[in-house]
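Section 5: illustrative case.
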């Protein structure tokens, strides 16, 4: 069974960097892609970044382009997010997700989710 575990969250100052990691502790599955989403209280879980297994196509939300970099090895069910120039509005719980089918920028395309890791950015 897919069991995603995130790590790397923490509390930082605006302008600092953090790196998030995700791995499937349940084994290795043939995935369509993997992605990062984030959520703050009172708001919907929003897309951040993703990688497609076929061709390694990368997707980034407009709000993080130029600051965040997504990487990983989807065949090994691992995913990373390098977050630079962090802003207070990046504060959220960040979730790793795995997809078997669908458009990778959409929440509905992901079948499995990690427990989340907190990122807090102070200004």
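Designed sequence:
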């Amino acid at each position: 069974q897919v069991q995603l575990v995130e790590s790397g969250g923490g509390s930082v100052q605006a302008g600092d960097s953090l790196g998030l990691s995700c791995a499937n502790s349940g084994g290795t599955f043939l995935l369509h892609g993997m992605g990062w989403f984030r959520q703050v209280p009172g708001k919907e879980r929003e897309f951040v970044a993703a990688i497609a297994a076929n061709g390694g196509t990368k997707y980034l939300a407009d709000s993080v382009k130029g600051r965040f970099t997504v990487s990983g090895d989807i065949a090994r069910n691992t995913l990373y997010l390098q977050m630079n120039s962090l802003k207070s509005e990046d504060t959220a719980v960040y979730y790793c997700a795995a997809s078997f089918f669908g458009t990778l920028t959409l929440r509905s395309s992901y079948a499995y989710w990690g427990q989340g890791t907190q990122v807090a950015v102070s200004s």
